[in-house]
C-alpha cells in the first residue's frame, strides 16, 4: 500500500513538473491556424467555392449521410467538376492564389492511360506517367503489360494559348515509350536521378517486380537496379521517392499485383524498403501496414509520409473498416528507418494514393474525388475536386500541378510550387 502511495505521489510530482507544458497546450485551436477558418476568404479564383465545414457539421435527423468512401463523394455545392473546394481560407492564400485555374489537357475516355508514376523532367519540360496496371480501363493483365507515356508541357502551353481560355479542355499528344521486357506493370516513379527516370514496376506473372532507371530520351535505355530482397521477389512495388540529402531510394511494396490478379499471392509482408544504389544494399524501413502505397519525403529529409490504401482490395472489393490513411514518420538520421508513426490524415473519399509535398510543406494526395491538400498539421485545406479518382500528381516547378486522373490528365495552374525531386 505504502509503495503504491509513494508511486502515486511520484506520478503526481511528475505530472506537476509537466504542468507548464499543459498550460502552453491551451494555445491548441480547433482551426489549427491563425485565421478564422469559418470566414470565407476575401477573394476566390473563378473556379473555386468556399465550403464552410460548419455548413455540413450537422446533417440532421433526416440528413443524407454517405455510406462509404467509394460509393459517393461529398460536394455540398452546386458546382460541377473540375473546381476547387475550399474548406479553409489558407487554401486560397497559400496554395491557389486568386487566378488559379484547372482543366483537362489530355484525355482518352476509353483508356486509363494516366494512372500513376508522374515524373516531371525539367530539361525537356515533359511529364512521364504510367497507365493503370490491372484495373478498370487499364487494358493490362497477367498477359498484357501496361504503358509508360509522356506529354510535353510546351505543347500544353501552346494549345492553352491557342484556346484563349483557362478552362477549355485540351487534348495534347500522348507519346508512349518503347521499353524493354524488364519493365512490367509500372506503378511508381520519381526523379530524375542522375538524369534518369526512376520507375518501380509491379512485375507480371513470374516476371519480377523491380526498381529501374530509364533514360527519358529515346531509345529509353533501361538499367535494373534491384529486383529482389536477398533472392526473394518483391510482391508488387508500388511507389518510390529519393531522399534528397543522401540519394537513398525509399519504395513501397504492396499486394495489388495479386489483388488485381496479375501476380501470385504475396510471399513477403507489405513493407517500405530503403535501397542504397551505390552499394546495392536493401533493408526494411517500416512495417505494420495493410497496403502501403504512396510515399513522400520532406524536402529537409527528416519526415516521411506513407499512405495505406487498405480499404481497396482489388477484385475482392472494398472494406470500409480497413485503413484509408496517411501516416507520418520521422526519418531516423542514422539508420534511415521510419520511426514515430502517427496518423497524419484519414481521407473521406476513396484512398490516399500517391503523395506529394509542396515547397511550403503542404501535403497533397490523390484520392477518390480528386486531390486533397492538407497543411503540415494535417488540417484539410481543400480539394482539387474532379468528382473522380486522381491517383497521383506532380508539380512541374512553381505554379503547375499535373494530375493523373486515369482517362484524363489535368493541369492546375496555382501559386504553390513543388520542390526539386531530382537527385543530385
Ligand atoms: C469566426 O467568425 C465567425 C463568423 O464571424 C464568428 O461567429 C466566430 O466567433 C469566429 N470564431 C473565432 C474563433 O474567432
Ligand atoms: C424526418 O422525416 C420524417 C418522415 O418523413 C418526418 O416526419 C420528420 O418531420 C422529419 N424530421 C425533420 C427534422 O425534418
Ligand atoms: C443549390 O441550388 C439549390 C437550388 O437552386 C439551392 O436551393 C441551394 O441552396 C444551392 N446550394 C448551394 C450550396 O449553393
Ligand atoms: C459526379 O459524378 C456523378 C456520377 O457520374 C454525377 O452524377 C454528378 O453529377 C457529378 N457531380 C459533379 C459535381 O460533377
Ligand atoms: C484525344 O486524342 C486522342 C488521340 O487522338 C483520342 O484517342 C481521344 O479520344 C481524344 N480525346 C477526346 C476527348 O476526344
Ligand atoms: C543506349 O543503348 C544502346 C545499345 O546498348 C547504346 O548503343 C547507346 O549508346 C545507348 N544510349 C545512351 C544515350 O546511353
Ligand atoms: C474488413 O476488415 C476488417 C479489419 O481488417 C476485418 O475484421 C473484417 O473481417 C473485414 N470484412 C470483410 C467483409 O472482409
How does this model look, in words?
Residues 168-399 form the SMP-30/Gluconolactonase/LRE-like region domain. This is SMP-30/Gluconolactonase/LRE-like region domain-containing protein. InterPro entries: 6-blade_b-propeller_TolB-like, Oryzine_lactonohydrolase, SGL. The protein has a single domain (83-417), classed as TolB, C-terminal domain (Neuraminidase, 6 Propeller). The chain is globular, with a radius of gyration of 22 Å. The N and C termini lie far apart (63 Å). The strands form six sheets. A six-stranded mixed β-sheet has the order 1-2-23-22-21-20, covered by helices on one side. The chain has a four-stranded antiparallel β-sheet with strand order 3-26-25-24. It is 11% helix and 35% strand. It has helices spanning 2-24, 90-96, 153-163, 256-259, and strands at 48-50, 83-86, 101-107, 116-121, 126-130, 148-152, 175-176, 186-193, 196-201, 210-214, 222-226, 236-242, 249-254, 272-276, 281-286, 292-297, 303-308, 325-331, 338-346, 355-357, 363-367, 370-374, 380-385, 392-395, 398-404, 408-417. It is mostly beta strands. Bound molecules: 2-acetamido-2-deoxy-beta-D-glucopyranose (7 copies). One 2-acetamido-2-deoxy-beta-D-glucopyranose binds at residues 75, 80-81, 387.
Structure keywords:
424 residues, mainly beta, Neuraminidase, six-stranded mixed beta sheet, disordered N terminus
Number of helix segments? Answer: 4
- Architecture (CATH level 2) name: 6 Propeller
Mean pLDDT: 93
Bound molecules: 2-acetamido-2-deoxy-beta-D-glucopyranose
Main beta-sheet strand count, sense and barrel state: 6 strands, mixed
Given the C-alpha coordinates, what overall shape results? globular
Task: Specify the CATH class.
Answer: Mainly Beta
**For this structure, what is the CATH homologous superfamily?**
TolB, C-terminal domain
The percent of residues in helical segments reads 10-25%
Question: Which secondary-structure class do the elements indicate?
Answer: mainly beta
What portion of residues belong to β-strands?
25-35%
Fold-level CATH name: Neuraminidase
InterPro entries: 6-blade_b-propeller_TolB-like, Oryzine_lactonohydrolase, SGL
Domain SMP-30/Gluconolactonase/LRE-like region: 168-399
Keywords: Signal
Protein name: SMP-30/Gluconolactonase/LRE-like region domain-containing protein
Amino acid at each position: 500500500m505504502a509503495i503504491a502511495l509513494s508511486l502515486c505521489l511520484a506520478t503526481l510530482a511528475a505530472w506537476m513538473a509537466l504542468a507548464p507544458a499543459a498550460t502552453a497546450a491551451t494555445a491548441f485551436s480547433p482551426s489549427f491556424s491563425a485565421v478564422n477558418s469559418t470566414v470565407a476568404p476575401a477573394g476566390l479564383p473563378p473556379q473555386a467555392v468556399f465550403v464552410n465545414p460548419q455548413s455540413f457539421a450537422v446533417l440532421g435527423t433526416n440528413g443524407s449521410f454517405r455510406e462509404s468512401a467509394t460509393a459517393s463523394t461529398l460536394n455540398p455545392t452546386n458546382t460541377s467538376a473540375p473546381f476547387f473546394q475550399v474548406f479553409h481560407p489558407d487554401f486560397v492564400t497559400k496554395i491557389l492564389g486568386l487566378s488559379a485555374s484547372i482543366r483537362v489537357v489530355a484525355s482518352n475516355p476509353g483508356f486509363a492511360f494516366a494512372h500513376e508514376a508522374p515524373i516531371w523532367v525539367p530539361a525537356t519540360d515533359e511529364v512521364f506517367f504510367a497507365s493503370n496496371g490491372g484495373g478498370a480501363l487499364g487494358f493490362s493483365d497477367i498477359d498484357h503489360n501496361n504503358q509508360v507515356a509522356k506529354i510535353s508541357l510546351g505543347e500544353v502551353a501552346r494549345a492553352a494559348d491557342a484556346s484563349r481560355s483557362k478552362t477549355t479542355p485540351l487534348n495534347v499528344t500522348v507519346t508512349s515509350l518503347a521499353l524493354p521486357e524488364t519493365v512490367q506493370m509500372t506503378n511508381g516513379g520519381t526523379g530524375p536521378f542522375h538524369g534518369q527516370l526512376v520507375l518501380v514496376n509491379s512485375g507480371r506473372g513470374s516476371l519480377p517486380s523491380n526498381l529501374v532507371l530509364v533514360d527519358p530520351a529515346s531509345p529509353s535505355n533501361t538499367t535494373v537496379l534491384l529486383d529482389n530482397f536477398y533472392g526473394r521477389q518483391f510482391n508488387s512495388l508500388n511507389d518510390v521517392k529519393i531522399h534528397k540529402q543522401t540519394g537513398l531510394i525509399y519504395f513501397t511494396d504492396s499486394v495489388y499485383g495479386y489483388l488485381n490478379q496479375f501476380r501470385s499471392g504475396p510471399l513477403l509482408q507489405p513493407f517500405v524498403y530503403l535501397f542504397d544504389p551505390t552499394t546495392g544494399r536493401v533493408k526494411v524501413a517500416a512495417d505494420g501496414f495493410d497496403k502501403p502505397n504512396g510515399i513522400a519525403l520532406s524536402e529537409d529529409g527528416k519526415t516521411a509520409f506513407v499512405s495505406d490504401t487498405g480499404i481497396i482490395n482489388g477484385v475482392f472489393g472494398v472494406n470500409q473498416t480497413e485503413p484509408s490513411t496517411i501516416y507520418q514518420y520521422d526519418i531516423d538520421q542514422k539508420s534511415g528507418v521510419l520511426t514515430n508513426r502517427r496518423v497524419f490524415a484519414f481521407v473521406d473519399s476513396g484512398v490516399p494514393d500517391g503523395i506529394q509535398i509542396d515547397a511550403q510543406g503542404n501535403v497533397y494526395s490523390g484520392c477518390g474525388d480528386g486531390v486533397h491538400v492538407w497543411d503540415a498539421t494535417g488540417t484539410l485545406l481543400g480539394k482539387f475536386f474532379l468528382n473522380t479518382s486522381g491517383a497521383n500528381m506532380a508539380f512541374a516547378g512553381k505554379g503547375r500541378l499535373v494530375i493523373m486522373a486515369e482517362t484524363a490528365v489535368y493541369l492546375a495552374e496555382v501559386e504553390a510550387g513543388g520542390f526539386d525531386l531530382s537527385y543530385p
